[in-house]
Automatic annotation (TrEMBL):
It comes from Bosea vaviloviae. GO terms for biological process: D-alanine transmembrane transport; L-alanine transport; L-isoleucine import across plasma membrane; L-valine import across plasma membrane. SUPFAM superfamilies: P-loop containing nucleoside triphosphate hydrolases. Residues 19-259 form the ABC transporter domain. Keywords: ATP-binding, Nucleotide-binding, Transport. This is ABC transporter ATP-binding protein. GO terms for molecular function: ATP binding; ATP hydrolysis activity; L-isoleucine transmembrane transporter activity; L-phenylalanine transmembrane transporter activity; L-valine transmembrane transporter activity. GO terms for cellular component: plasma membrane. Pfam families: ABC_tran, BCA_ABC_TP_C. The lineage of its organism: Bacteria, Pseudomonadati, Pseudomonadota, Alphaproteobacteria, Hyphomicrobiales. CDD domains: ABC_Mj1267_LivG_branched (cd03219). The keyword Nucleotidyltransferase does not apply.
């Protein structure tokens, strides 16, 4: 096999996964927040990363998005080594993320927030021209507002929205610009039971080609919207499996659920 053919074969093998981590660790001084994380997620796959507080879940997200640089290891996104890429370069390649703490423009409308998100990842993001009423990005923003069930309040100021509606808006922002993969960081935190049911519907209705990882403490939400689960403990991967396997696993119940989970 020629060197060129060998490189092409490696590229093809790498592109089989949307996200791939190999031996990723993150140290804060002497503290190992992540230790030798090896993880692969296929295109379109929906996975939950679960674990108690301090398990390393958010640090894992920060390494994937480029907010933190891993101390060791490699991160590939659709076959491309992005380990040293800054967050904006990963965003341009189709990676998106929501955060535990909302970061929205409270003085702008729902639609304006989503439009700005769409504009921010477009080729014309630095243009000073005001958009026309038939601007394609406005139509895209309206579609995203509808996808997260906020059409009825699209003209309201974000600061006037209920907390659950603001979390729905964050999902719309993450969907802007045709993402290929999304990281959801505790999207159900602080939501009412009705809002959680709405969240499940939104997540399960996302286009099939968009894969995601969700960090979530609410097991009833997390296990309903994914097809695979990674359990973390003390910065390491503790166990992996399908939702029903994880839910019925005695070690998981003992360590994370305090006994049987009905």
């Amino acid at each position: 096999m020629s060197a060129i053919a060998a490189r092409e074969g490696l590229a093809s093998a790498g592109s089989a996964n949307a996200l791939e981590l190999r031996g990723v660790s993150r140290l804060f001084g002497a503290l190992a927040a992540l230790s030798d994380i090896t993880l692969s997620v296929k295109p379109g796959e929906r996975r939950a990363v679960l674990g108690s507080n301090g398990a390393g879940k958010t640090t894992l997200f920060n390494c994937i998005t480029g907010d933190f640089s891993p101390s060791t290891g490699i991160i590939r996104f659709f076959g491309e080594d992005v380990t040293a890429f800054p967050p904006q370069e990963r965003i341009r390649r189709g990676l998106r993320r929501t955060y535990q703490i909302s970061s929205l423009f409270a003085g702008l409308s729902v639609l304006d927030n989503v439009y700005l998100a769409c504009r921010g990842v477009s080729r014309n993001r630095f243009s000073l021209l005001r958009p026309r009423r038939d601007d394609a990005l406005i139509h895209a923003a309206e579609g995203l507002v509808d996808a997260v069930h906020l059409s009825a309040v699209k003209d309201r100021l974000v600061g006037e929205l209920a907390y659950g509606q603001q979390r729905q808006l964050e999902i719309a922002l993450a969907l802007s610009g045709a993402p290929r993969f999304i990281l959801f960081d505790e999207p159900a935190a602080g939501l009412s039971p009705t809002e959680r049911r709405d969240l499940v519907h939104i997540l399960t209705s996302l286009p099939g080609h968009i894969g995601y990882i969700i960090i979530e403490h609410d097991m009833d939400v997390a296990l309903r919207v994914v097809e695979s689960v990674t359990m973390m403990h003390n910065g390491r991967i503790f166990k992996e499996g399908r939702p029903e396997e994880i839910e019925s696993d005695p070690e998981v119940q003992e360590l994370y659920l305090g006994g049987a989970h009905g």
